[in-house]
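Researcher: Sequence of ABC transporter permease subunit follows. Predict its structure.
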Amino acid sequence: MTAVLPTQVEDPTRPTAETAPNPRGAWRGRLASGLTAVALGVAGWQVVSVLSDGWMPGVGEVLTATGEVLTDAGFYGDALLSLRRVLLVLTCAVLLGLLVGVATGVSDRAEAFLRPVLVIGLAIPDPVYIILTILIMGISETSGLVALVIAITPLVANVVSGSVRARDHALDEMARTYRLGRRDYARHVLAAQIRPAVVGALRTSFAFSWKLVVLMETMTQPDGVGARIYEEFRFLRPENMIACALVFTVVMRLIEVLALRRLDRPRPF
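Model: Prediction complete. Tokens:
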């Protein structure tokens, strides 16, 4: 009798050499798509500039103004001042939102008390906070920063609260079984589960923070990138206004990509 060896059955879901994704090809595809989008955007911009009969600056004028901005030492001082305000607002809003979010996530009483406040806070337009704070505290840097912290805190708190409520309660039972202290529970059980939500809230808050800081500076401050943009608008220099906004946007985007995206990497607790 001849023994029949079992044949190996291939898993249809397992990627083969032909179907496995090529990282280099995917990178080239994303680069080509990005360059195409930029080229179409520049071409559309130039067409609109021609059709507007000079009211909208052309690409060449904006590039020339961008070079002037990059060689202006005063712009870097304004950019550092705006960045300091962004980091201050971001830090305060994330810390307050984290405390409120954890409290509403673990306590039904805190959730019943603070949920209407968070819902109303998310519904109010951000410029309203700036106007109301100016009416109460006057026109100053402090009033603007307080307004932005109040505007961004509900966003962080809402994200963190949802993550805390969606945690694995079986791990809570295990923590009680092993009699973990509050500090160990917060570090090894709770923080490990809500970390992705906190990172996501941090990135979203950063994107809102720098935009609102620029808006606040245009309304209340004599310095900063927002004040410089408003000054260029007053003197009818749209190419310089666009150049300042463009350079600062690129800087903020680089900070997000180089610094904040690294927080997405999982870390042991």
